Amino acid sequence: MFSITVKLMKKSARMLIPAGIAILIGTAFIAATFLFGNAMNDSLARQTTAQLGGANYVISVDSSEGLNEQERNDIYTRTVNDFQLDRIRATEGVKDVRVESSSSVTVANGDKHASSYAITTAAQRDLLPVSIIQGDQPVDGNEIALTKSVADQLGVKVGDSVTVNSRTAQAVASTGYGSAGNDTAADSGMTVRVVGITEDPNGAYAYYGGASVLSDNVITAMNGIDDFGKLNVYLVYLDIDDADQPSADATVKQIDKLLPKHFTVQSRAAMEEESIKSVSKGDTSITTIFLLSFGILAMLVAALVIANTFQVLVAQRRRTLALLRTIGANKGQLYVSVLFEAGLLGLIASMLGVGLGIGLMAALCQSGLMKATGMTMRLVLSWPAFVVPIAFGIAMTVIASLGSARSATAVTPLEALRPIELNDTRRAGKIRAILAGLLVLVGIGLAAFSAWQMNEKIAGHDSLADKQYPMVLLAAIAGCALIFLGLVLSATFWLPVLMRGVGALVAFAGPSAKVAHANIQKNPRRVAATGAALLIGVTLVSTIATGAASAKQTMNEALTTRYSVDMIAAGADMTSKQADEAAKIKGIKDSIYAPTRMMSMKDANGKDLNVLIVGVDGVDALRKVVRADLSGVTISGDSVLMPKYSAATGKDIPLGKSVTFTSDVSGSQTGTADAAASDTENDGGQSDGVQTLTLAPQKVDYRRISANYAAVAFVDAGHFTNGDVKANGHIMLMRIDAESADTTLNDVFTNVQNAFSASADIDVSGPVAARTQWETMINGMMALLVGLIAVAVLIALVGVANTLSLSVIERTRESATLRAIGMTRGQLRCSLAVEALLLSLVSGVVGVVLGTLFGWLGSYMVFSLYGDTVFPFEWTTNGAVLGVAALAALLASVAPARRAVKTPPVEALAEA
């Protein structure tokens, strides 16, 4: 019987190809998922231990669990001297030792400044976690190896001298707080010689853009101490000769005896294993589980294609099966024969799929595309990448063929004498209809309940969403899932009816359309299965696209209402030249460069507020950059423009008829005694080093000019020029041309940051920055998810091609008859194209409608917490999906149409 089955498979090979392709795509995705997870784990392990450099062992805290506060304090106050590094270096088998200590420093070359993350050096270059691409690593005193980006930014090369200062010391010096009488806080830094240039190829310090290497005395000074032996350290990296493992183990035991209490030596391999386990469940990472869910989705869609294929195969072979029954084959043999054929098809297609998955993953690793994400990936093979896809592919193929196998057992010997009837006219069962209806009703109920509870929460009423928001959100998700599952189960009822209705309208287009309309009604079960496969993919794509569009627009609206200025740059070192350069950047529509000073005030209730005073040349200049209603507002010498709401609390700021601002202008604030002395000579607004300014307030609803202050107040710039207020900083307010097609928000934000990069203390912020980060994240997630679901859509389109091919095979005599009575080849091709379009577009449109509704509900449940939810229709993505579906459907109709018109009418009638 098995030999007969193989012969039948060879005879029907062309019919099995689409099903095989569906299996191949699904299993390739699953195999690639496992390989991607392996590569991610490998990359994670290498990144986690990248800071070890060439070390293969590390001295670290054994465990802090169960320790009291004093013991924990002892652990994290250990110094270099406590580790007896000289004795460790003298231990047989130890090649080199490096202590782990780091510091954030500011590097200056003339008037250029740059921030850098700095680490300790080592005796041997191999032990460093970064690569020295030019020069050498620091060894003697007062040496530094700069990261390439910092060296380029400062314009320095090996052999030049730069000034290094601790970021903490610089922050204290710039603010002046706590520094009165303390000269070290305002220290100008340490002059060091650049001996090398570094790169970070393994991403050990990717978050910081790499790391510079400091000699021991410099890292000591940056940590505020005078002796390297007193440097706090709780990580020591070792390069131990492990060519002979027993000898390496003996070396580790000797080192263990020299270590302080609660410290131990751990191998790099053990650290890598722990890092993988920390983000894994069993032997499978979270990333792999996430991706596998889409692989399973793809295989479920493939199962619909496989089921259709075997239904037609069994229908076509009814006479053959009946003849086999006549010569002695029993029902069990026929049943096993169909399952064996499915299993063999699944095995072959799955093995090809695994090979394709390995090839795709190898190409991805070699392409270097993942380097843009800061990851370097390698192809890492494992048994799950082979076994799981093949087993899953075989299982899904066999399961999908069970119905067809059962149909095969129903064939009686007498059917060998009956005409072949390929059309499946069976009606779907009542149980399915009832179950699907219940699922839809329960889903609608859950979705409506969740939306109602969310509406009550937003309205400020008592609701379950206030107390159990996660449960309400899960109820909404469950509701959508139940609705969708119910619609898929009941597709055999409503989808053929919908296609029949649309087809009735299309039928008026001509004979070809009328034939297509008639053909699509002949096998409603297969039409429903094919349409449901496409419906699943399109609905998910549309849901994600709608949710992403709603997220971006809702958050953009929320950011716009929370910020009245698109972008600000502020800092004590800002110069007018930098502001002029920033104003010329493409995408900056208008800007204001203004002096500032932080002052304090009391509101009408006597509450203290920190206020940033900004000097502007009238309200007309302010209108260019501030998004607020400034009609009827003036800014004169005796008035101040104040925000209506506090940026800190969001509550109304109560103000009287006048408000007095005060500021300490003593030496601790301005930085020089001469400045303070000169200030006290001004026009009575100052006394004893305190500057005051009393003005009449005007309140306008503008929001969060700067989130660092409770309020930002605008006064006439003359107060700064006449000495009423002494500026200790500047601010630049910018309006972005959002409609500019020449540049993106991300480019504008990046270019503005670059314009101020020479000053270390200038901060660029505002809604454009937040919007840029938000849109980048949303676009990345959307591209990933749509890309994953596209696999299911691709398999569904293979199903459309399969359905058309099977229909052509079934209708051989019918097509021949149409040709015989005068239908041209072009008309026959056109009828198949219209049939394909009906299958694809009707299912696609329903999927878009469902996906949009699901996306709207999801957006309302999540983003209404942040502002008024926007309910967009994602024309671009939905149109693209429908366009791809239509194009793929037309392409899918080409091969079946060629087969339909290739056979002469007389020959086709004879064969049918």
Model description:
The protein is 54% helix and 15% strand. The protein starts with a helix and ends with a helix. It has 3 domains: 53-274, no CATH class; 490-563 and 766-912, no CATH class; 567-764, no CATH class. Helix 20 (524-562) packs antiparallel against helix 30 (875-892). It is an alpha+beta fold. Residues 664-690 are annotated as: Disordered. GO terms for molecular function: transmembrane transporter activity.
Structural class: alpha+beta
Tell me the domain tally.
Answer: 3
Strand-residue fraction? 15-25%
Strand order of the main beta sheet, please? 3-4-9-6-8-7
How far is it from the N-terminal to the C-terminal residue, by CA? 26 Å
What's the short version?
One of its GO terms (cellular component) is plasma membrane. The protein has 912 residues and is an alpha+beta fold. It has 32 helices and 23 strands.
Topology:
Elements: H1 2-11, H2 13-48, E1 57-61, H3 69-75, H4 85-90, E2 94-99, E3 102-109, E4 112-120, E5 131-135, E6 143-147, H5 148-154, E7 161-166, H6 167-175, E8 190-199, E9 212-214, H7 216-222, E10 236-240, H8 245-258, E11 263-267, H9 268-278, E12 280-281, E13 284-285, H10 286-316, H11 318-326, H12 331-367, H13 383-400, H14 402-409, H15 430-458, H16 464-467, H17 469-489, H18 491-506, H19 511-520, H20 524-562, E14 567-571, H21 576-583, E15 588-602, E16 608-616, H22 619-623, E17 639-643, E18 659-664, H23 667-670, H24 673-679, E19 686-687, E20 690-700, E21 711-716, H25 718-721, E22 729-736, H26 745-755, E23 763-765, H27 767-810, H28 812-820, H29 825-863, H30 875-892, H31 894-902, H32 905-911
Parallel strand pairs: 4-9, 6-8, 16-21, 17-20
Antiparallel strand pairs: 1-10, 1-11, 2-10, 3-4, 3-7, 5-8, 6-9, 7-8, 12-13, 14-22, 14-23, 15-16, 15-22, 18-20, 19-20
